[in-house]
Amino acid sequence: MNAYKELIKGLWRENPIFRMLLGMCPTLAVTTSVQNGLGMGLASTFVLVCANTVIAAIRNLIPGKVRIPCFIIIIAGFVTLVDLLLEGYAYSLHGDLGIFIPLIVVNCMILGRAEAFASKHPIGISIIDGIGMGAGFTLGLVVLGAFRELLGNGTLAGIALGIEQPILMMILPPGGFLALGLLLGLMNHADRYMARRNRRDYPAPPEFDCRHCVICSWGGSRKAADGGKS
Question: pLDDT by residue (tens digit) across 52-108?
């Protein structure tokens, strides 16, 4: 397994936000500024790397029937640690992120990496996977936060840029959906352009959405095996 490819795959090809469309709740809720996006991204990355490490280390000890509850308990432990650290050393950021810090426990990106990768691979490559996917998630949050902050507040990372009439809607909930849609379209257009330039076929992006994750695929295969009864 190529460690470099595992490290960079989350930045573009399998970006959790712009390709897999995972973690949409914090993505749309906290990205009203660069600082919030960066804080949530780093917190999620810490939890992801730590959870991947522990799950990879004990993957052969966890019974298959209770693996998901075990993963959630492990993830919840690290989320509690992050929550306490932010409350103690970054109280302002902790207040801005609010309930979305505890909700990292149910972030489908983190649970999905635990099920799809860490539970099947050694510790080293699982750490690399966590760093890569966490970096991609953080990058997506920062880009989306910068886009919304710039248009909605006329600032970038808190620095005023002299925009006289910002679009207030961009830092409101509808603006999150609008900004995400625009960035998704831009990314798809970039993929299509690079494919044409390199004279290769352009793959359909939906192959990475949540309907095709390991958990849903496992449920579908089980239903098929039961003849559609389950």
Answer: 999 999 999 999 899 999 999 999 999 999 999 999 999 999 999 999 999 999 898
Q: What is the C-alpha to C-alpha distance for residues 105 and 79, in angstroms, rounded to an integer?
A: 6
Residue ranges covered by each domain of the chain: 3-225
- Strand intervals (E) in 85-226: 155-156, 159-160
Query: Is residue 10 classed exposed, middle or buried when 0-12, 13-18 and 19+ CB atoms within 10 A define those classes?
Result: buried
Q: Quick check: 28 and 180 in contact, CB under 8 A?
A: yes
Measure the CA dihedral 207/39/142/140, to 10°.
-10
Q: Which residues of the chain, if any, have pLDDT below 70?
A: 1, 202-230
Strand partners, 225: none
Distance (Å, whole) CA 58 – CA 60: 6
The pTM assigned to this predicted structure is 0.84
